[in-house]
Amino acid sequence: MNSEQKAFFTAIRDFLVVYLPKQRCVSLNTIKSYRNTLNLFVDFMVGHKKIPLAKLSFIECTYANISDFLDFLQSDRGCGSSTRNQRLFVLKSFFKYAGTRFPEWISLSFEMEKIPVQKKANKLIDIISEDALRCILKQPDPNSKSGMRNLCFMVLIYDTAARDREMLDLTVGCLHLNQKHPAVMITGKGNKTRMVPIMEKTKYHLERYLSVFHPEESRQNDDFLFYTTIHGCFESLSLILQ
């Protein structure tokens, strides 16, 4: 591996390990998203451009290859314009950082700026009808443990309009139920928090859920609200409810 190849992988490491968490202070979820984009790009260059991993360097990061990668995301992985644009933003951010670490490659950042953001058509989003919502909420069995959990999750995510990742990051301490206007503190992108008021019905489901999954005698504020148990340890629930 020559110096150009070492520079490429050094830049990736420092971007993910130093720049994003320590200099930009972005959230873990943002770092995971950036890491995923860079992994996809490396996999594309190795699998589709047939460049051996050990020989991959900034030299291969051309306008044409980046454009092909973005097209690949849509044609082979079925990604939409929003995802394509988000991956492009990550790559632009990475190459801009790489130019500060290795000035000889700063020109790549200028090349990336030539790649346009893809316009996306505005879609009219239909609201869910009351009958449809009622039908959906009848699916979990509230008399079973998993059904109670799933119903509580569904009611809370509907009432707060939170993202799924924001829901899974909730802890018991995020709930503010014993006040005049019950609310949930939600942490979103960029570690920004917001207090979201909830309905009394949602409060009822949460209190019922807490009594079973977080008994008062062992309840800890930093415990994940929705969790799974792995080898006796509480872990955040995955995006797929089981």
| Largest sheet geometry | 3 strands, antiparallel
Helical/strand content category: mainly alpha
Strand order of the largest sheet: 1-2-3
Order of SSEs: HHHHHHHHEEEHEE
Structure description:
- With 242 residues, this protein is mainly alpha-helical.
- The chain has 9 helices and 5 strands.
- The protein has helices at 3-23, 28-47, 63-75, 81-101, 107-113, 130-137, 145-160, 164-168, 200-213; strands at 175-176, 183-187, 193-197, 227-230, 233-236.
- A hairpin with a 6-residue loop joins strand 1 and strand 2 (183-187).
- Helix 1 runs antiparallel to helix 2 (28-47) and helix 7 packs antiparallel against helix 9.
- The two termini are 45 Å apart.
List keywords for this structure.
single chain, 5 strands, mainly alpha, two-stranded antiparallel ribbon
Give a short summary of the structure.
The protein is mainly alpha-helical and 242 residues long. The protein has helices at residues 3-23, 28-47, 63-75, 81-101, 107-113, 130-137, 145-160, 164-168, 200-213, and strands spanning 175-176, 183-187, 193-197, 227-230, 233-236.
